[in-house]
Each structure stands twice: as C-alpha cells, then as structure tokens.
Amino acid sequence: MVDSKQQWKAWIYLAPALILLAIFTVWPIINTSIMAFQEGFNEMDALRVGRWGFPIGFGNFERVLNYNRFITALTNTIILCVPTVLLSTLLALIISVCLNSIKAFNRFLQTIYFLPYVTNSIAIGMVFAAMFNIVGNTSAANPIIDTYGIINTALQSIGLEPINWINAGSTYEANMAVMIIYIIWNALPFKILVLLGALQSVNKQYYDAAKVDGTGKVRTFTRITVPLLSPMITYVVITGFIGGFKEYSSIVGVFGDDMGPTGAPGSLNTMVGLIYDAIESGNTGIASAAALILFGIIFIITMINLAISKKTTYY
Predict the structure, then answer these.
(1) What angle do CA 199, 187, 243 make, to 5 degrees?
(2) Measured between alpha carbons, how far is 206 from 210 in angstroms, rounded to an integer?
(3) Is pLDDT above 80 for 107?
(4) Is residue 129 in some structural domain?
(5) 43, 61, 114, 236: most buried, per Cβ within 10 A?
(6) No. of H helices and E strands in the chain?
(7) Rounded distance, CA 165 to CA 132, Å?
(8) Are 198 and 229 in contact (CB under 8 A)?
C-alpha cells in the first residue's frame, strides 16, 4: 500500500493514462449520451444553430426503434452472437483439453491455433469469401461456372451438390451459415489461449486422485475439469457475448460494404452496421441513440450472464 505522504507520486505516474482514458473513453461516452437525447442532432446543423441548439427528448430513440431495418439488424446480431459464443466456447474447451494432453509439438500447435487472433479480420473475411465463392456467370440464362471454390469442390468430391453460399441469389440461411462458421473459427484462438492457460494451472492432484478412484475420462472432464475452469469459462462467455453483439467487420470482410450478397444489400446488417449507416448519412443523434440501445442490450445480457454464473461458477 502506498504511503499517504507519497500518494501524489502515484497520481503523477497515473496521470498520463488517466488523461488519455478521459479523452478517448470517458468523454466520448458522455458526448454520445448527450447527442442521443438531442433530437435531430447532426454535425452540419450544429455548426449553424450551435452545439446546444437542439431540443431535448427521446425522438432519436423512437426513430431508431421505428426504423424498418432495426428488427432485422437486431435479429442478425442475435443469430450471429448466441450460437457462435456457445459453440466456440465448447470447441475451445475441447481443443484446450486435447492440447494440454499432447506433449510433443505442444508449443507449435498453440502457435498454429493462435495465428487467426493476430490476423486482420478483414483479410480473413476475404479468404473466407474466396473459399465459399463461385466464380463465373451464374445467371439462369447462361450458367457458366469457372470454379466453385474450395468448399463446393470439397462437397462435390464426396458426391454432394455445390451450394450457392454468398453469391447473387444465395439464401439467407446459406449466408448465415458462412458467417457463423467464420466467427466461430475467428473466436477460437483467444478462448483456447485463456482456457489452456487456466487448464495448465490446475492442481494435478485432482486428476491423480481420479485415476486412483478409476474415474473415466468423460466423468473426469465433467466433474473436475469443467468446474475448475468455470471462472475462465464464465469470462470467455461474457466477453464473447460483448464482442458478438458488436459484430460488424467480419461481415464486411466477406460481403463488403453492402452487408449482404449481390441483390440483397443490408440483409446481414447488424446493430453496429446500423450505427455506421446513421453516421455516414449525417444523423449523429440517431447513431448515438442506437449506440446507447446497443449498450443497454449488452449490459442486460452481461447482468444475466453474471447472475447465472453465480450458481455455476466454482472459485
């Protein structure tokens, strides 16, 4: 503990970080909250009537909730968030246990699994787009196909018909399947890193006692590994939901700025995409209101997760 007479030195050391935090985190949150309640706020009108020349009310929130694509964006966000968080956490847990049991090439395999985490998400999205893409004229009148892409080629090799995943005329379900696969794959590295680190710190005496008692591997996994890792599982689930509700760049990487296949722009738009659309159109007040709505949704989901974790987490 810092001596009370020397606390001023601690504040001096913390000052640069606190100043940057106030400028780039605290003030934007305050400013966004102010703009959200200023009806019709936009930057151009603010130059004309002044920063405080807008009426105060809930009009921006009403416009967001009544926007015809709000439900679509919210539905897409939930679909892209809930299954991906649950499946990626389960897969990360299984892979972590497998990696922990492998002695040879352990570090090498950890590096391989961690590579997607340090790779740009837009670049990864472009790779996935190429994997699921169909190159050529795919119109019904002149269906000339140059290549079906890696995924459809693999499907054909086992006797299945190629699927139109992301091109014009593709279905919403196919588009979502591609995005869910991509997001799960992209989310695995961080979760594997966290869970593997927690797994390696578990006291080996628990497993030795299980072997003496003749406990099977499945029961050892469910009764020892999962309870002991429950704090870290809770952590990756909560952070996964927070990140999942902010999903945006992955869709841009696969489908581009249209947020959907050719002929169906905006069909995969999310809440963050809705915010960016409002900013690009100059409706800063609406964008701020949408950001606060998204914050409220994430806050409620986080509180629900914390409430559930109190009954399922063992410390």
Answers:
(1) 110
(2) 6
(3) no
(4) yes
(5) 236
(6) 15, 2
(7) 6
(8) yes
Q: How many domains does the chain have?
A: 1
Q: Which of 117-121, 226-230, 286-290 has the highest mean pLDDT?
A: 286-290
- CATH code (residue 125): 1.10.3720.10
What span, in angstroms and rounded, lies between the C-alpha atoms of 78 and 187? 16
Radius of gyration of the chain from Cα atoms?
Answer: 24
Q: For residue 195, report the phi and psi dihedrals to the nearest 5 degrees.
A: -70, -35
Alpha-carbon span 194 to 44, nearest angstrom: 46
3-state secondary structure of 144: strand
Per the prediction, the chain carries an average pLDDT of 85
Reported as a pLDDT band with limits 50, 70 and 90, residue 23 is very high
Residue 141 lies in a domain: yes
**pTM (2 d.p.):** 0.85
Residue 313 lies in a domain: no
Q: How far is CA 55 from CA 32, 34, 59, 76, 288, in A?
A: 16, 11, 9, 33, 15
Q: Which 8-state DSSP code applies to residue 222?
A: I
Contact criterion met (CB below 8 Å) for 69 and 266 = yes
Report how far residue 62's alpha carbon sits from residue 65's, in angstroms, rounded to the nearest whole number.
5
Eight-class DSSP state of 260: S
**Domain limits at 222?**
68-280
Percent of the chain with pLDDT over 70: 92
The pLDDT of 230-236, averaged and rounded, is: 90
User: Which amino acid makes up residue 156?
Assistant: Q
Rounded CA separation 11/1 (Å):
14
| Measured distance CA(289)–CA(32) in Å, rounded | 8
In a domain, 31, yes or no: no
| CB-CB contact of 99 with 196 (8 Å) | yes
Name the residue type at position 273. Answer: G
Q: Say yes or no to pLDDT of 232 above 80.
A: yes
Q: What is the mean pLDDT of residues 137-148?
A: 59
